[in-house]
Specification:
single chain; 507 residues; Rossmann fold; nine-stranded mixed beta sheet; six-stranded parallel beta sheet; binds alpha-D-glucopyranose
Length: 507
């Protein structure tokens, strides 16, 4: 019966494009809800109102004042503002939890009270539903920031009629960021009566801290990650970041759904930021974008030299140690140009600065993050490099492919699910990949790519295949809706078990 019905879904995220972004989570939160709206469901997004989310700029309207939010022994108050993303059939309400105390700051994370800030956000979002008298069928939580919500629904709110039928789904975007805190956090969250969670198979020290992500994984009705391969990988110690015993316990409710990209925002046929627009039938126009990029990067403007690009958060995850190890050979032996954009750890800033100082005519590092430049890089480079150590989904490789930039990737997680290694014997594949995380394997993949680049017709086929791949959200949004119904079924089942239990006790 419920399968016919339009669902009410509250989507919780700490960041969302265009309001606040530090990583891929913001891209997902700013686009997946719109695709689910399109399928006819009443999904609404909620996030904190950071100082940078300007009321006038985004046309936010105040919906609630002084909403009481239980915190620790006291009650804090929150405001609620409303804005939207999308337009027409994709128009989706966005609720902003407002609090001068917790969120009126320039940054998004990295404050000493982050645990308390996001506990407040999650709790305020739940209380706001009640105040608005909007009863969600499903609450969709993302990352550690909102991972206590399933925990509350199974404890604090267990007998609350307002949430009696609300199911939860928890999406883990990256197991490296778990949100690990001390006992005090349980008091702030009002969960100290329930204590630590002891899991027999995790490292003993994990049972003496509050690992927010672990709680999301343990309490949500359904859990998922952002690609099918990563969903399999996190069952293993290598990729599970010490939570793999918990993930293995919950594998009956674990799914993988590949992220999509915003195909309207990232479209070389309409992109206002690139020198010359093009589509799959006018790929030859890319060469003008290549010249524009080489010029902007201060590199010799040469159409015959392959331009390799890398756009990433400059962290260990992204495989920059491998890039450092092969940069000399890449420029000297393969004669390539390399353009990098991103910000992150200072050791990688240093590495890239010294590489470009040593190879001023071949390597350019833009140590910044700017959308227009990012799009010019996708449109103007030939090869997109993404040698991540692990990659839950990865978004940039999909965007690069949409712009006809052929990927070279480490075959893990979402990279393995979106890039298939070119096979010269059969002509199949849409990029180049390597299996073992080491510099020689990456180098060999680049050698294969650069060789094919010299065969104009083959390369053209590769570019076409990349551009024609369907990375839109539609099919993934349908899969999420299936998971929402599955979460509701799990929840109903659990209720039945609970009421059976109550019956036996009453007898
Ligand atoms: C995280 C992951 C990345 C994924 C993104 C959105 O940033 O590291 O692989 O694409 O989340 O799900």
């Amino acid at each position: 019966m419920i399968d016919q019905q339009s669902l009410k879904v509250l989507y919780l995220s700490a960041e969302a494009v265009p309001f606040a972004k530090t990583g891929g989570l913001a891209d997902v939160a700013g686009s997946l809800p719109k695709a689910i709206r399109c399928l006819g469901h009443d999904i609404r997004l909620a996030m904190p109102r950071y100082g940078r989310v300007e009321i006038e700029k985004f046309g936010l309207v105040r919906r609630l004042d002084a909403l009481p939010v239980p915190m620790d022994e006291r009650t804090e108050t929150a405001g609620l503002l409303e804005g939207q993303i999308g337009a027409g059939p994709t128009e989706t309400p966005v609720y902003f939890v407002d609090s001068p105390r917790y969120f009126d700051r320039q940054g998004i994370y990295m404050y000493p009270d982050d645990a308390e800030r996001f506990i407040f956000f999650g709790r305020a979002a739940l209380e706001a539903c009640r105040a608005l008298d909007w009863q969600p069928d499903v609450i969709h939580c993302n990352e550690w920031h909102t991972a206590l919500v399933p925990n509350w629904l199974k404890t604090t709110y267990r007998d609350d009629p307002f949430f009696a039928r609300t199911a939860t789904i928890y999406t883990a975007h990256n197991l490296e960021y778990q949100g690990v805190f001390g006992y005090r956090v349980l008091e702030i969250a009002g969960l100290s009566d329930f204590g630590y969670i002891a899991h027999p198979d995790v490292a003993p020290d994990l049972n003496e801290v509050v690992d927010m992500m672990a709680r999301g994984l343990l309490f949500a009705d359904i859990i998922n990650t952002v690609s099918e391969s990563y969903a399999r990988e996190i069952l293993t110690p290598e990729f599970g970041h010490r939570l793999d015993p918990i993930v293995r316990d919950r594998r009956d409710r674990l799914f993988g759904i590949l992220n999509g990209i915003d195909t309207e925002l990232y479209d070389p046929a309409t992109d206002p930021h690139i020198a010359v627009r093009f589509d799959v039938n006018s790929i030859e126009k890319r060469v003008a974008n290549k010249a524009a990029l080489q010029e902007a990067a201060g590199l010799p403007v040469r159409s015959d030299v392959p331009v390799i690009s890398l756009v990433a958060r400059l962290t260990d995850q992204k495989g920059l140690d491998l890039v450092g190890a092969i940069a000399d050979a890449l420029t000297r032996e393969l004669g390539c140009q390399l353009v990098v954009m991103g910000t992150g750890e200072s050791r990688y800033h240093d590495l890239l600065e010294s590489l470009s100082a040593n190879h001023p005519n071949q390597i350019k590092a833009f140590l910044t993050f700017e959308r227009p430049l990012e799009q010019r890089i996708y449109a103007g480079s030939d090869i997109f490099l993404m040698p991540s150590r692990f990659e839950p989904c990865g978004i940039n490789q999909m965007v690069a492919m949409r712009y006809g930039c052929v990927p070279v990737v480490h075959a893990v997680g979402g990279l393995a699910d979106t890039v298939s290694n070119y096979q010269p014997e059969t002509g199949q594949g849409n990029g180049f990949s390597f299996d073992h995380y080491d510099a020689m394997a990456l180098y060999a993949a680049l050698v294969r790519a650069v060789e094919m680049y010299r065969h104009a017709e083959i390369w053209r086929q590769l570019m076409r295949r990349c551009m024609l791949a369907d990375f839109s959200w539609r099919s993934s949004a349908e899969k999420y809706v299936d998971l929402y119904f599955r979460a509701l079924a799990v929840k109903r089942q659990a209720q039945r078990t609970l009421s059976d239990y109550a019956l036996t006790r009453n007898e």
